[in-house]
Amino acid sequence: MKKLTILLTALALVVLAACGGKDPAPAGYDPETTSKALLDSGAFTQELSQLDADMVSAYLGLEDAPTAAVVYTSLEGGYEELAVLTMADEKAAEAAKTAVEAHVAAQTETETEVQYKPEDLPKLKNAVVRQAGNTVVLVVAADYDAVSAVLDGDGSTK
pTM to 2 decimals? Predict the structure, then answer.
């Protein structure tokens, strides 16, 4: 009887483990924590200023407004910027990522044609745009090693 109880318990555990479901959704980036870590990382050479929340969607060309957002842009007429967006869900985040990529592509095209700040062109060409869960991160910076250290670090910014 004791062996049967152990066998049934083991069988129940195997069945429960198999029915555990899919992997949890990837953790997203917290706008406040991630933006602060990026600003403190030394990745930027231009002075940045926080964009008003009501201007974020128009500035980045988003169809849906983020539920939370922190966006900084260059005060020097340059292209350095950072945006950390929390969207309503992963589908909205995918659309936001596409819009942010189009935003960077438009800036790159403009700078390529106009050569207003040619020193910023490599920054634009190496822009980081990432999606994690329902969040999107954009970084146009001077030091992408510092950006990677924050975004790929120990997870404390997520």
Answer: 0.80
